[in-house]
Amino acid sequence: MKTLAIVVPCYNEEETIHPFLEACQAVEKQIANQLAFNYYFVNDGSKDKTLEVLRQVSKQFENVHYLSFSRNFGKEAGLLAGLEAAQGDYVTVMDADLQDPPELLIEMYAKIQEGYDVVGTRRADRKGEPPIRSIFAKTFYWLINKVSDTEMVDGARDFRLMTRQVVDAILELKEVNRFSKGLFSWVGFDVAYVSYENRERVAGETSWSFWKLLNYSLDGFINFSEVPLKLATWAGTFSFLISLVGIVFVIIRKLTIGGSVAGWASLVSIILFIGGIQLLALGIIGHYISKIFLETKKRPVYVIKEKG
Q1: Per the CB 3.0–4.6 Å rule, which of 72, 101, 158, 272 could disulfide with 45?
Q2: CB atoms within 10 A of CB 217
Q3: Which pTM value belongs to this model?
């Protein structure tokens, strides 16, 4: 019988683990003659009793396994650790808060049998999400698809069912600065999507604040596009050309009319404008250099303190 590995990154999810397992086990019973389930929870340095709950359920169920980090390394590290630990013919990534409906696994597995390598999920709407977050999310996907060669689907979740070949391809990407939404798309393969209505968390609160999501989206631009660097180049070139025009204007005015050019206020404004462009360009370049610096240090993406 083929096996399905379910990877579940966790951060302060003590209230959601039991409901999540119950929902998944209900699905497991429905397709028990087709797939054997194995669960791989990754405790990402939780501050609550998540680790205690994971110890308990791993003793209670033979097919429940867990990894616990030495500190919080972030969701990307949790995803990578789970994918590296997962053993199975198929692998899926899910959130413990039940915003990823486990019952979709039946439909997703049916589509995999049709010949697809990946079956992803996408939200049909953003119901229940703050309006400002929805606006920024839609803007991000519109922009990233304009400036990147890697297409990212608006509303797509990390919740996806993948064949072993796809997972192995993802694990071949050894970069430290990981942006999984981009990596899942970059490796390619035949992908189908299943849509569903947005769901609220079953319990607890999300750890993703607006600013964390904004920083995460900036990582996406830096990891999958060179356009920010090109913008800095274009802005510098534009400023240089404007300055040449200004110099020619001053010389011609001096030769034809004479006298000094008035307008110290405008001159200071122009200097500040050019200085702002320079600082912006340095900031963009600095972000790329910082990513290079982190890659060259070759530090591990995560450190495991405990396994079960």
Answers
A1: 72
A2: 19
A3: 0.72
